[in-house]
Design brief:
Blueprint: H1 10-14, H2 18-26, E1 39-41, E2 50-51, E3 65-69, E4 72-76, E5 82-86, E6 97-101, E7 108-109, H3 112-124, E8 128-133, H4 143-155, H5 165-188, E9 200-205, H6 207-218, E10 227-230, E11 246-251, H7 263-270, E12 275-280, H8 299-309
Parallel strand pairs: 6-8, 6-9, 9-10, 10-11, 11-12
Antiparallel strand pairs: 1-3, 2-5, 3-4, 4-7, 5-8
Organism: Sphingomonas canadensis
GO molecular function: hydrolase activity
Keywords: Hydrolase, Signal
């Protein structure tokens, strides 16, 4: 998989923007509440995952660990990437597939709310779904130290310096390689999994949305047939001529991206590429599949209706 690093288009990835990377590293799940602490848990029983062939994270020393927060499960210090299939019943399979990229600021992964729950809901609609557990930046092994590092990031006390385009690409290289490997695996097993290789999309949440955009802009064999950007950065980009249809969902009260403009939407429209944008009045950041009283909960049904409209479920 090393060859994949040489296929990334630096100019395209630079468009994602240093500010977006810093924002995703700051918060990628619901804003931390004082009364909702992280609780260490044993690695939970999980659906059968397939280890991707991108190898272990270079230089990693802290082992993979899990914790619960907001009533959901999170993984951190992921050093080996995996892909977990959620296949629809044979009679329901539509031939469409989606690679799901959870968020977590490249420090944690919201495996339940933005991963398994999304995949199960897609499978129930006849869409084969694959949760990508991509490699993460290392964090302190001890929970107390990890919590403190996250608190410092939330407060801005440990905000990293502005990154150059070259540093952005180097920082995301492992995650982009994991996404590319996921697409390669799904396409290689498309027949066995009853999937049309031309109808494989990708949906990402927060940092996972950033990874989705990076994978899309990188192009080549990993280019998704359609993409979903769920409360990710809306920074403008240079849109490829063959950019896929894009679905975007964001809450107006999102503390990260609710007041940063809609450059990404404008970029897609200027390039005359299909885009659907849902700006919900309320929902905050990280709503995912959490049941909430806000209309942002409806993003999933809207997403399925959108891919249906485009004929991907036909």
């Amino acid at each position: 998989m090393k060859r994949l690093f040489h296929m990334i288009r630096p100019a395209a990835l630079a468009d994602i923007g240093a500010a977006a990377l810093l924002a995703c590293c700051a918060i990628a799940t619901p804003v931390m509440a004082q009364n909702d602490r992280m609780t260490p848990i044993a690695i939970p029983a999980q659906p059968t995952a397939i280890v991707l062939d991108t190898g272990p994270l270079p230089g990693a020393t802290a082992p993979e660990a899990w914790h619960s927060q907001y009533g959901s499960k999170f993984a951190r210090n992921v050093t080996v990437a995996t892909l977990t299939p959620f296949l629809p019943e044979e009679g329901k399979a539509t031939g469409a597939a989606v690679i799901v990229a959870p968020g977590g600021g490249f420090r944690t992964l919201s495996m339940e709310n933005e991963g398994w729950d999304v995949a199960r809901a897609l499978a129930a609609r006849g869409v084969a779904a694959f949760v990508l557990k991509y490699r993460l930046n290392q964090t302190p092994a001890e929970m107390a130290a990890f919590e403190e590092s996250m608190r410092q990031m939330f407060s801005g006390a440990a905000r990293p310096p502005r990154l150059s385009p070259g540093a952005q690409i180097a920082g995301l290289a492992p995650q982009i390689a994991d996404a590319r490997a996921a697409f390669a695996l799904v396409r290689a097993r498309a027949k066995a999994w009853r999937i049309d290789p031309e109808r494989i999309g990708m949906v990402g949440f927060s940092a996972g949305a950033m990874l989705t955009m990076a994978t899309t802009l990188a192009g080549e064999d990993a280019r998704p047939a359609f993409i979903g950007n769920i409360y990710g950065s809306l920074a403008p980009v240079t849109v490829p001529l063959d950019a896929p249809p894009m679905f975007v969902a964001l809450a107006a009260d999102d503390p990260l991206f609710g007041n940063t403009g809609f450059g990404l939407i404008e970029s897609w429209r200027a390039a005359k590429r299909p885009v659907e944008f849902h700006l919900y009045e309320q929902g905050g950041h990280g709503f995912g599949m959490y049941p909430k009283k806000t209309t942002s909960t409806g993003w999933f049904d809207a997403f399925v209706a959108w891919i249906t409209m485009h004929g991907f479920l036909g």
